[in-house]
Amino acid sequence: MIPSIWVQHELWGVMKGMRKADIRISGMHCATCAVTIEDAVGSLGRGTTAKVNFGTDIARIEFDPDLVSLREIEEVIKGAGYDVIHDEVIIRVGGMMCATCVETIEKALSSLPGVIHARVNLATEKAYVTYNPSVTSIEVMKGEIENAGYQYLGVAEELSLEAEEQARERDLSDKLRRFSIGFAVSIPLFLLMFIPLPVGMHTLAWFMLVVSTPVFIYVAYPIFRAALTALRNRTLTMDVMYAMGTGVAYGASVLGTLGIVLTHDFMFYDTAIMLASFLILGRYLEARAKGRTSEAIRKLVGLRPRTALVLRDGNETEIAIEDVAAGDLVIVKPGGKIPVDGEVTDRESYVDESMITGEPLPVLKSKGAKVVGGTLNTNSIFTFRAEKVGKDTVLSQIITLVEEAQATKPPVERIADVAVSYFIPIVLIIAISAFFLWYLILDSTLLFALTALISVLVVACPCALGLATPTAVTVGVGRGAELGILIRNGEALEVADRITTVVFDKTGTLTKGKPAVTDLLPVGIDERTLLSLAASIEKNATHPLAEAVVRKAEELHVPVESSTEFTTFAGKGVAARVLGEEVLVGNRVIFSERNIVIPPELDQQIIRLEETGRTAVLVAVGGNTAGVIAIADTIKETTPNAIHDLMEMALPVAMITGDNRRTAEAVARQVGISRVIAEVLPKDKEREVKSLQAAGAVVAFVGDGINDAPALARADVGIAIGSGTDVAIESGDIVLIKDDLLDAVAAIQLSRKVMSRIKQNIFWAFAYNALLIPLAAGILYPFTGYTFSPVLAAFAMAASSVTVVSLSLLLKRYIPPAKKGRI
Questions:
Q1: What is the per-residue pLDDT across 540-595, written as a single tens digit (0 to 9) for each?
Q2: Helical H segments across 43-98, by residue range
Q3: Which of 37, 121, 649, 793 has its CA 20 to 30 A from that of 303?
Q4: Is 505 a catalytic residue?
């Protein structure tokens, strides 16, 4: 295992171009580790040195950032067998409009020394930055974001929900004012061109110049400001194109008014203002729609109560939730929200956990029961001891997982990223080519050529491409959280859409995981003695079958003796000495290995039990068969329906289990599974998944997330079944909060729906540009005499982004077929 390095960097200063930083290292085992790191860093040369103190685990690095980057230093440390863990921050960014804005901010942040990686999500308006605090700081990042022409809205954890809403409302109000004033002036100016007036064109032109200039500056200011910032950063963005389009329209109007080169025929004042107004209107609608994509997160955050009532020195004290500490006794009154996770210590009440699990009925919580922060106490007062607070609570983990998942880019987004990188240069070439083609080659009027130029610049829209994937992922992941389906990343969504085989673990997944003893078949001893011997050994084991044997002994008040020399045989059984005798409890495999003979009559009884789906636990004493204990596990109520739904989706289903084949096939028949992989040791489940993948299958493995961790990790998509609020968030690619297999089906259906919507969005974004750009360039004019006016182009541009976001928002109402009638 690679030792980890926890990095605690401290800036020591800059002297003669050299910079010093402290790196705290963990994982050094001896002084030679320190020498290894010093030699590795020193091998970079160019004045780079490292002094590693093994006693304090600190490496002091001195380097010239103009010659060697900290990233290079970290790479050689990794090459020496260590790893580097950096600080991370999530920054909220305002003013982003399209995919090129994302690229601009990512480039600006990545250019900062010490920034290792910067990823920006347009839909959530957040920048996820991995950085080295010894070289850069959040304040420096703030300045870089603002220098790039965007708004720094604070660190995500520091910005309250109210502050975020206020910032969004201010931005929306500003956009609303700008386009309202723009339309209020441009529409009358447009009508003036068609109304007979008692004044000459010269006077009208000057009137329009005076009226339109301040309005144009006010409405178009955000576009030109962003364009100038982009040009200063040597970046081509959509704002540059829009500024060119509106600027050409306004500039031509001014030249026509002044009679310089152009005539009064070139009166685009109304067009210039209307173009800018439509652009701002599009951004207003887009911002409103984008704000709705993160509603799921805001709902989850809204579940957090702000205060808690705790017992301090025997008195009830109301404190801020941030001040609750593990071990505090917390009082929850009827109708109050539970502030943190913990365990009930006094009284009982019914708690509504639907906001976390989706389970509609309140759950009784009595002494010893676990409670979760954010859930609602319904009918009585109770006290609980706080166990998990702050970021460790289930609710906080869910929020973090959903936020991180929304920020990830599924591989399909790379199509849009590549397209956007080439988009603007290609559009500029098309726009300029259209102008020269019409004016110089096809001998059209300058007015027509300018109209084509402006229309192409305004109609082109990579924004729809940039929004196609992140908005769908954001809404889809949020919808999953509302349904009790936690999706860890965008890649899981994409892979889940391509699943060809679903493999289920049996115990605890298809079945309830609480097996019970059904038959006792002793040989040469009575039933109580057989049960006593088996329970005396099984009390040391943790397998569900062992627990069933012990429970049965307790129910029948059978004595459980102490045992010695306890030994386990993975996947086969256990052995120990009980009352001086060697006792073996296990399956046929261990009996065969030990050459223990099973009497023929007993063997026939075992076969009959296994054919009915029961597991036979064999017991031997002193090397001779002493009997059989039959154990059965109950099939979950929703299992047959889940398997049926998957079959209806044309997904082959397999079951994997350590049980013998007869028992496994009996269970499989009950639930409708035809393919059975039986007698598999726990450590070999991963190998079976790998063999399915080698045969070309894209495998989803559904397990409990505890015993099946290797198989979940090996599968293309690991789906971990939870158990209500006691869920292991990190256990799979997709985590189901409820212990319900229909949610596994719903997760696949949701993934297919999200990916389908992403593909639709990308198709329409490509189709929009592929159709309207040639139309704006005038391709139909020679055949139909039709031209695409700049105003109509601006309206179409605004509609394209809003359409894509709106299509993504439809996912908010999506109910997977497997969940219909159940929510």
A1: 887 778 889 999 999 999 988 888 888 888 778 889 988 888 999 988 888 988 88
A2: 70-79
A3: 121
A4: yes
